[in-house]
Amino acid sequence: MAKDLTEALRLLTGVDPNSLTNSPEPLKDRGAAAKQKASTLNTAKGSASGIASPLVETSYAARTWHADTTINSSDGIFTLVIKPVKQVYFKDAVNADVEMEYKSP
Amino acid sequence: MTLPSKIFFLDEVVRFGDTCHGLWDSTTGKVTTAAAVDIDLTGDTPNSGQGGLSTGTGRLSEYGNCRLLQVPGMSAASNTTADTTAGRTWLNYGLIAGGAQRLYGKSTGLSCIYVAPDKSRWSVTINGTGGWNARVLSLVLRRFGEIGVAAQTQNIALGTWDLTVTNNRFGNAINYSNAATDAHVPLFLEDFKDNGSKLVFSRGHWENGKAASSVLDDSWARNIYSIYELTISGQPPAATAAFVEIVNQAASATLSDSVTLTYTWWIQWHNKPVNGVDQGYANMETLTTTTPDTPYPTGENGNLYVQSSWYRLTGVSQTLDAEVVIGARYSAAGAVEIMKKKLHLTTSASGTFVATFDTTPGPTQGDQTTNASVSQSQSGYIACMAGANELSRVSFTASMSVTEVSANNVWTTLTRSETATLGSLTASSTGMNIDISTGYSESEGKLNFDWKGHSVKAVRYSNAVYGILREGYYTAQYTYNGQKVFFRVDGKIGADTATLTPSTSAWPVHCTEHPVTGTVVRATAPVCWV
Fold first, then answer.
1. Cβ neighbours of A4 (radius 10 Å)
2. Which of A65, B345, B354, B492 yields a CA-CA distance of 20 to 30 A from B58?
3. What residues of chain A lie within 8 A of the CB of B91, using their CB?
4. Does the structure's ipTM exceed the value 0.90?
5. At residue A43, what are phi and psi to the nearest 5 degrees?
6. Contact A74 B148 (CB under 8 A)
7. Which residues contact B24 (CB under 8 A, 6 or more apart)?
């Protein structure tokens, strides 16, 4: 079955599949590479990539909230009505946007 | 309640509420928890302010008041070992303590907290304007205890009422007292139901300058004219309320029954001889009286040769039952209970009185020989009543007998003796005038049974606790003046059946009942469950 598939690919493309991984890409000209943006999770200690501390909240007013919830004192006499936070927006040290999202309690 | 100044959204509130609960003792200032841990009282003492009503006279209420504030559906609260060790007690209900309506360590001064059908809480305040003879009352409900909710208020008119308080005597059931020192209390909060939907008030006067005192002493008394009930229903801001007079002591035939007994005054005389001529003698006569004070019949002064008299209860026996209101409270089941004291009295009298006179002309004409043997007795009880239910009673019996022999105008033998048992007191005497009538106490009305200065009365100690005490004067048994004996007291749930006898001449007693556990505590200094 694997051999049949390889032969079928060769007939369709005119390229030998076994030669693809062994063919080096031609070198680009020096200084011709364009600037590109990229991001990645900061999973490695000491990595200089990812979110740069400190995070600074951009605006309190920009927060979003879940629906109100209440907390009662054990005797039921007093009630706190609170609005749980949902989203908070930050800028990191290199002025990159960072957004935190919280679940409803 | 104290909340942290900052609440971080990543924190989680595990539990909050008032954890300072236990028995507050004014002598130490401490609160002893159920686990016997002594902690400091948080906030105000239970009687640090004035209680209850903006429309009243601001009289301080009793230290031992403790009322339950129950919000339905609250889960049972548990306490960890750390809580117990630290003296924290979590409860799923509130306690409103003392005359100042202490809640969460604060003297609220509110009448109560109304728990609406949706479980929202509303503070209850009664306002009044205008003269006391036409007082315009209104109820103010204000949203309570919800942080983060917009303020809401509802005003409800309660009508115009004549709440004047005078020193009027109501028949013979309530006594007149001292106008100069009495405190007139146009509206006094007696108690309220657990959810604040019903409140009972009284109108009357508090005797002998006790307006600003919570100390129960030998002149403490409260004479009540009327009981009112305020009922709140529905959901604010569309709640409704009704203010109704449910007892009018003056208008009640039962409650204002006279307890005066009728006596027959037995008297005899023989007129003096005039110029050696006998003026004859009178037959023994009787006068029926309820105020046996007049010593001689009009017109007979100066002509009496011999005389003898005494009082004897009319008829063979008399029985009476009379009641007066001393307060009101709500039972644990939430029913209003009109608190009363009741006097039950049975009297009987028997005996003979025989007088003979020498009618032979001569020096001895008119001389009298009297033989009398008369006895009479009384028995009965003073009871503390919750509605028609008797909570406790102190029984008494008293009896007297007279043996009297005189001859030749000389009283040769006069023996009068009496014995009485009054609660724990038994005493007897001889050679004294006989007066085992119902009492004329100025402190609690005629329904006290007085005997030789000892009065038995039913009294109110707090919103929940009522009981019977006896106060009296020097006796061989209790050797100082003004001594009191405190009999059983009954709360809404619990009771203290002990009889307490004082060890000093002044011993005010304070009571408090826990509205959930029913534990009743009595002490010589203010105590209160908080």
1. 8
2. B492
3. 74-75
4. no
5. -100, -5
6. no
7. B30, B31, B41, B45, B46, B97, B527, B528, B529, B530
Decide if B93 contacts B125 (C-beta within 8 A).
no
Distance of CA B351 to the CA centre of its chain: 37
CB contact under 8 A, B18 and A82: no
d(CA B210, CA B53): 18
| Highest-confidence segment of A47-51, B65-69, B168-172 | B65-69
Query: What residues in A contact B13, CB-CB < 8 Å?
Result: 71, 80
Cα dihedral B347, B481, B394, B176, rounded to 10, equals 70
In angstroms, rounded to a whole number, what is the distance separating the alpha carbons of residues B188 and B55? Answer: 9
pTM over cut 0.80: no
Task: Say what the pLDDT of residue B211 is.
Answer: 42
Average pLDDT, chain B: 73
Q: Which two tokens stand for residue B428?
A: 């007897």
Burial of B57 by CB count in 10 Å (0-12 exposed, 13-18 middle, 19+ buried)? middle
How sure is the predictor about B324, in pLDDT bands with cuts at 50, 70 and 90?
confident
